[in-house]
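Human:
Take a look at this sequence-structure pair and walk me through the tokens.
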Amino acid sequence: MVDSRNIQMVDLKGQYRKMQKDIDAAVLEVVRSAAFINGPAVKSFQSNLASYLNVAEVIPCGNGTDALQIALMALNLQPGDEVIVPSFTYVATAEVIALLRLTPVMVDVDPDTFNITAEIMEAAITPKTKAVVPVNLFGQSCDMEPIMKIADKHGLYVIEDNAQAIGSDYTFSNGSVQKSGTIGHIGCTSFYPSKNLGAYGDGGAIYTNDRELGAKIRMYANHGQQKRYYHETIGVNSRLDSIQAAILDIKLKRLDEYAAARNEAADHYDQAFEDIEGLVTPVRASNASHVFHQYTLRVTNGKRDALQAYLKEHGIPSIVYYPVPLYRQNAYKNYVEAGFSWPITEELCQTVLSLPMHSELDLETLQYISGKVLSFFH
């Protein structure tokens, strides 16, 4: 019988128990070596992640927000330059743009994938547009091939926010396959503990196939220096510490296994909910694999909040990602006109609900969760 007190949105304790010996040994090795910053563990993880992604350069950093900021810093954008971002995303995507005195241009998203499209992006391009940040939301890549074509046409940089989709694949029209985050000029990810590839603290990484750009990014992340004590530009101090790198190196070997387990859980949810009126299950694009960082339903009958309250009564956590569009946040209201809104973003903020999703979900727990959702609708 399921103990509802133990149901988690993400079960990090259960995941840790399966690899406790490896994790403990790796952490102890770092402590014994005292190579806490830029030690061998960082170099090993950096190399292994580059191999996994099949990308030329990986630059580890302090967190996913730093990754986005450093990526933008390396592009020499000027104050007032416009950067296109989805309005339905976590605030970090727009936050770093505003911090650098650039202008976030918030656009609507596709109602099925929750991602921006080439058509949406192109409609927002002006003479001031210099870059776009597609967010691979909830674990699935944006349709990057047409996005890159429009970006090339208009001379725009593309920085993929891949914080939620590391490990997912994108298939081009010619049949070639690339990992999400490696298609744009720069990819950025987060290793926040609840991410599919999560550290036991903060961490992030930036990656690119442009070695010259990679060297520049590495310089910006290291106080603007390539040679110690010789600073070429104003940079920041953002690095992944050795303990986190050692943990991530172990978990990287299991990343595809985690994705498969998440897909099995998503398959169960999909089958359980397929005939429920007022409930829309996640759309899986034909040309992009889904790694289900989140399993996000749309409750279209106006009962989203009632469903969430009902699940809570039965010990089932759920979260609304995201309840407020970026353009309605007080911090960003000066970037839009009064009354500004996007119809799909508004609808999503009123209807989305994410259920527990992680690699440790067993069949009994999945049946309990889906059963309670079904009992609410019946």
Notes: Residues 146 and 250 are 35 Å apart (CA to CA). The radius of gyration is 21 Å.
